[in-house]
Specification:
Strand content of chain B: under 5%
Shape of chain C: globular
Chains: A alpha+beta (about 350), B mainly alpha (about 260), C mainly alpha (about 290)
CATH architecture of the largest domain in chain C: Orthogonal Bundle
Radius of gyration of chain B: 23 Å
Mean pLDDT of chain B: 88
CATH architecture of chain B: Orthogonal Bundle
Largest sheet of chain B: none
Structural class of chain C: mainly alpha
Low-confidence stretches of chain B: 258-262
Oligomer: heterotrimer
Distance between the termini of chain B: 30 Å
CATH superfamily of the largest domain in chain C: MetI-like
CATH topology of chain B: MetI-like fold
Structural class of chain B: mainly alpha
Shape of chain B: globular
Number of strands of chain C: 0
Largest interface: B-C, 92 and 96 residues
Largest sheet of chain C: none
């Protein structure tokens, strides 16, 4: 096992900057998600760590050993591919055995290791099958067993659950997490699914246009996004733009929005505030506001979407559509067209400097 | 619908007529090779004497051996060189790759008359001259593009992640090729090899310009015999050739779909 | 995608070269250098090997343009190519259509294989087999006289039609193959959509099916026309004395008259014609690929 350090890595494909001065530290034994839209460079970064491609500049080290010029077959990594990439001409057991066999391990060792790996992924009895005889979830498990049987220093997963349907995906998320805990391997996985990133990982790195936008534990990124992009890409957010007032902003129409204590930006600069839809309270104009909710705005409900355990209200306010999510508590629901009051606390407001 | 039925029925009939057009002359030739009359006179009387007399024809037999030897060596060389080239074209990207791929088509598209005469001139000019070695040089060059095209087509169905997966598991270049890539493309390699054998074994034009009286192949020998006059012996040997080459292509079809279905 | 270009740049020509070099060296020695040598020789008065003095000349090309015989024969060969190609379209396209759109499943697969099988068998022998059918007292003659109430003599052997029949027989599987490939790629729902919009069968054929299968038709036509223009063995066997074409004249220069420089010039002119034809056809062919 080993940690992975990526320092100032850049990679260009022609004029396209696929990775632009990315530094990120993956601590030993952690579970990391690289999250970003397609073309953000997350897969490129994973392939740099794997060794399929080399950086133009910067350093990559695994377990303290500098590897940026070491080809993939010498890096002792394990990788699970998006479409599993199981060898169609080999049985499940031979697939799992492949990594040990190319290293010239003795046959008896191989057999017992393969069986252990298959047991770990709960496929102990399917060693004799061919890949095409397996379901999607089973193939996924074989791919995982094959990647970890060689005891790699780091496990890399490229959108590992992308090809599975929703229900199976949730099962596999739990399963993957269990196995990772059991063997304690440093794991880096690429995904474009924010929910997957939030539920599975210890830390998340968000990439955009080849740059690392923000990195940290899921809670921190969700609660304190440092950019509009981070706020809207990981979860949903209402963004207000205006001029900084010190610990808040002033909207063009004069309304002031204050952020929690600690937020500070020099007055006068362009800035924005992000507010999560579930943090906003919605009430008919007549209702009493909670005193803590220093921020309030008037608006009009333009649409309501009912989703069982909650409802999403779209509220029109000064040409902007705001989103509010209200838990289903059995209280009266608001009608479309109704004037409403929105309010939320400064602690629920994140102040973001304009780029 | 009535009209649809009738049209479909006409279509089927038409296909059978086409098949009759394609196969009748061959069937007739085969039948005549078992006919007693050397002048193809009817009524038909069964005999195998023409096949028996083939065994006495030393010239034909030695030409046949030449043909087989050249076809086998051509097949071996073409599958090795062709598979290697296909792998390189599949695996790597470099400037000029498109040009190299385009260069495969002149040998296929240029009439063999032109290629054959050009080879004759050049081989003569550089001192290789004519004969079996020159024929082999030519056959390999003619068959190589076919092998590369067939193996490349098979490689198109190969997922590049499989090679990456093998490398990520610690396999070196040779292990990746021999244990993952080659097993997958093997049907294509076999089909390509059979194509190469067929191209060489049936090759007439290029062999014709490159052969000398002592060093010749079966089709060239047959052509010479035809121009001297038809004999039932030519029928017999032609029948054998056509049966062998069709069997070979049926075998190829088993390993490689010509497109269409899948 | 970024991932793909990453693999691509991993290694370039340097890694590819050891695998590519043997095949392409062979092609260079046995195809490309000979073709260049042919061009070179076509500008010589004599073969430099024969010991006789030689010099550069345009005479071989002058011969082509000054003696109407060569031009006439080239035109005759081009006409032969055109006729054979047309017959192959007329015979092969409907067959490809039936294969692609009427027959289904295993029977289609089997018949398709049967149609293209002869193409890969020995061409010389197949041409020869027609001799038995076409000659006087041959099968066609005997069969027709057995059926018809009056006596006729069918002796097509050593005639222009015999050459056409033999060549069409040789090349029609090519047309079926290329047309079949494009026809079976046409989604049946397009045809149904056409019919649902009120088009007749003929209109659907003319305005949907034929335009969509054009690449296959052009590919087939190019692949048939080019070798037919350069054919010499087929006219020799089936055409006899009437079977003198451009290809047979080139053959003569190399095996009978031994005027290689002239033969090289004639070959090169043919190559130029062929390349022009392929170049004209290539935009359509590229769309097909």
């Amino acid at each position: 096992m080993a940690g992975v350090q990526v320092s100032n890595v850049s990679r260009n494909f022609g004029a396209h900057k696929a990775l632009d001065d990315v530094s990120i530290d993956f601590a030993d034994g952690g579970f990391y998600a690289l999250l970003g839209p397609s073309g953000s460079g997350k897969t490129t970064l994973l392939r740099q760590i794997a060794g399929f491609d080399f950086p133009d500049s910067g350093r990559i080290s695994i377990g303290g050993e500098s590897v940026e010029r070491v080809p993939v077959e010498k890096r002792r990594i394990g990788m699970v591919f998006q479409n599993y990439a199981l060898f169609p001409n080999m049985s499940v057991a031979d697939n799992v055995a492949f990594g040990l066999s190319v290293r010239g391990e003795p046959k008896a060792t191989i057999a017992s290791e393969v069986q252990r790996a298959l047991d770990l992924v709960q496929l102990g009895k399917l060693g004799g099958r061919r890949p095409h005889q397996l379901s999607g979830g089973q193939r996924q498990r074989v791919a995982l067993a094959r990647a970890i049987v060689t005891k790699p220093r780091v496990l890399l997963l490229d959108e590992p659950l992308g090809a599975l349907d929703k229900a199976l995906r949730v099962d596999m998320q739990i399963e993957l997490k269990r196995i990772q805990r059991e063997i304690g391997i440093t794991t880096i996985f690429v995904t474009h699914d924010q929910e997957e990133a939030l539920t599975m990982s210890d830390r998340i790195g968000i990439l955009r246009d080849g740059r690392l936008v923000q990195e940290g534990p899921p809670e921190e990124i969700y609660d304190r996004p440092q950019s509009e992009f981070a706020a809207t890409f990981l979860g949903d957010a209402n963004i207000f733009r205006g001029d900084a007032t010190g610990n808040g902003i002033k909207l063009p129409d004069g309304t002031e929005i204050s952020a929690g204590a600690g937020a500070k930006l020099a007055a006068g600069a362009k800035a924005s505030c992000a507010v999560r839809p579930e943090r906003i309270q919605i009430s008919t104009g007549t209702g009493r506001l909670e005193s803590a909710n220093a921020n309030s705005l008037k608006g009009q409900v333009s649409k309501r979407i009912f989703a069982g355990n909650n409802s999403t209200y779209f509220v029109e306010r000064a040409g902007q559509t705001l989103k509010v999510i209200v838990q289903n508590t059995g209280a009266d629901r608001l009608a479309e067209g109704q004037p409403v009051m929105l309010s939320w606390s400064p602690e629920s407001t994140v102040l973001i400097a304009a780029v | 619908m009535m009209t649809t039925r009738v049209l479909e029925w006409l279509g089927r009939l038409y296909i059978w007529l086409l098949l009759a057009f394609l196969y009748l002359p061959i069937v007739i030739m085969a039948l005549m090779s078992f006919n007693v009359s050397p002048f193809y006179q009817l009524p038909f009387e069964w005999t195998t004497e023409w096949y028996a007399s083939l065994w006495q024809n030393d010239q034909l037999i030695s030409a046949t051996w030449n043909s087989i030897e050249i076809a086998v060596i051509t097949t071996l060389i073409c599958t090795v060189l062709g598979s290697a080239a296909s792998l390189a074209l599949y695996r790597y990207d470099f400037r000029g790759k498109k040009v190299l791929q385009a260069l495969l088509f002149p040998p296929i598209a240029i009439p063999w008359l032109i290629t054959g005469t050009a080879m004759l001139i050049f081989f003569f000019g550089v001192g290789i001259g004519r004969g079996l070695f020159a024929i082999l040089l030519g056959h390999v060059a003619l068959a190589l593009p076919y092998v590369i095209v067939v193996v490349s087509a098979r490689l198109q169905t190969f997922a590049p992640e499989l090679e990456e997966a093998a490398r990520s598991l610690g396999a070196n270049q040779w292990q990746v090729t021999s244990r993952v890539t080659l097993p997958w493309i093997m049907p294509g390699v076999i089909a390509g090899g059979l194509f190469a054998f067929a191209v060489s074994f049936d090759q007439f034009v290029v062999s014709y310009f490159l052969s000398t009286p002592g060093q010749t192949t079966l089709p060239v020998e047959i052509y010479a015999a035809i121009r001297k006059g038809f004999t039932p012996e030519i029928n017999a040997v032609s029948t054998i050739i056509i049966v062998v080459s069709m069997a070979l292509m049926l075998l190829t079809a088993r390993f490689f779909k010509f497109g269409g279905e899948k | 995608m970024a991932a793909q270009s990453a693999t691509a740049t991993r290694s370039g020509l340097r890694s590819a070269l050891p695998l590519l070099a043997p095949a392409y060296l062979w092609l260079t020695v046995a195809i490309f250098l000979p073709l260049s040598a042919m061009v070179f020789f076509s500008f010589m008065t004599e073969l430099p090997l024969s010991g006789k003095p030689w010099a550069f000349t345009l005479g071989n090309y002058a011969a082509f343009f000054s003696q109407s015989l060569y031009l006439t024969l080239l035109l005759a060969s081009l006409r032969l190519g055109l006729e054979v190609t047309l017959w192959c379209v007329v015979i092969g396209y409907p067959a490809a259509y039936v294969l692609a759109k009427v027959l289904k499943g295993r029977s289609r697969e089997a018949i398709f294989l049967l149609v293209i099988l002869p193409f890969w068998s020995n061409g010389l022998v197949r041409i020869f087999s027609w001799a038995m059918v076409l000659r006087e007292g041959g099968i066609l003659d005997t069969a027709l006289n057995a059926v018809l109430p009056f006596k006729i003599n069918i002796d097509l052997m050593y005639s222009y039609p015999a050459v056409i029949i033999g060549l069409v027989h040789s090349y029609v599987p090519y047309m079926v193959l290329t047309c079949y490939l494009t026809l079976q790629a046409i989604d049946d729902s397009l045809i149904e959509a056409g019919r649902s919009l009120g088009a007749t069968r003929l209109q659907v054929l003319k305005r949907i099916i034929i335009p969509l299968s054009m690449p296959g038709l052009v590919a087939g036509a190019a692949l048939i026309f080019v070798p037919v223009v350069g054919s010499f063995m087929e006219p020799r066997i089936l055409g006899g004395r009437t079977g003198t074409f451009y290809g047979t004249v080139i053959e003569d220069q190399f095996v009978a008259v031994f005027n290689w420089p002239l033969g090289a010039a004639l070959s090169f002119i043919l190559l130029a014609v062929v390349l022009v034809i392929l170049a004209v056809a290539s935009p359509v062919l590229r769309r097909a690929a």
